[in-house]
Amino acid sequence: MPERTYNVLFLCTGNSARSILAESLVNHLGKGRFRGYSAGSFPKGQVHPLSLELLASLGLPHEGARSKSWDEFAKPGAAAMDFVFTVCDQAAGEVCPIWPGNPVTAHWGIPDPAAVAGSRDVQMKAFRDALHALQSRIGLLLHLPVETLDRMTLEQKVRDIGRAQAPTA
Q1: 116 CB-near residues (< 8 Å, 6+ apart)
Q2: Of 81, 93, 106, 154, which cross-links 149 as Cys (Cβ 3.0–4.6 Å)?
């Protein structure tokens, strides 16, 4: 019997950088066992160009990436999420929709690379740092024995992942 696929939604306010990076990483690293999605509470309407450039340079999936509202995932008929992670502090403080499927939730705050000013190299470093921090946390998620953990333990473990200091490049 094939393993179950777990749906993971990453939320941020603008859905143009961190949540897009996380979606791509889960879809790549999850190898079909985990399926990534992303959305924003107030989507910018376009993905940040440096997000797409970084993903492309690393050979990570980015085709079809788009900035979209979290309302898409809260309406009837939407895919039920198993996990919902906020990756920006602003989205973590907002009142979220009621998610179909009663997913496990946690806050995995990552500094916003799109907010970094400076040269293109400085900005790209911020995007790489965000990607590395997300990759570290997502790697820990993917190695959890999700199938064997009770819900309370699973919630604690994913919250602990978010509280861990993420390494920088």
Answers
A1: 122, 123, 126
A2: 154
E runs forming strands in the chain: 6-12, 34-40, 83-86, 104-107
Give dist(CA 89, CA 8) in Å, integer: 18
Tokens of 89: 């502090």
| pLDDT tens digits along 45-95 | 999 999 999 999 999 999 999 999 999 998 888 889 999 999 987 655 666
Q: What is the pLDDT of residue 83?
A: 97
- Structural domains in the chain plus CATH codes: 6-162 (3.40.50.2300)
115-124 tens-digit pLDDT = 999 999 999 9
> 131 in helix, strand or coil?
helix
Distance from C-alpha of 93 to C-alpha of 97, rounded to nearest angstrom: 12
φ and ψ at residue 10, rounded to 5 degrees? -105, 130
**Cα-to-chain-centroid distance, residue 156:** 18
The pTM (predicted TM-score) of the whole model is 0.92
Edge-to-edge strand ranges of the sheet holding 104-107 = 34-40, 6-12, 83-86, 104-107
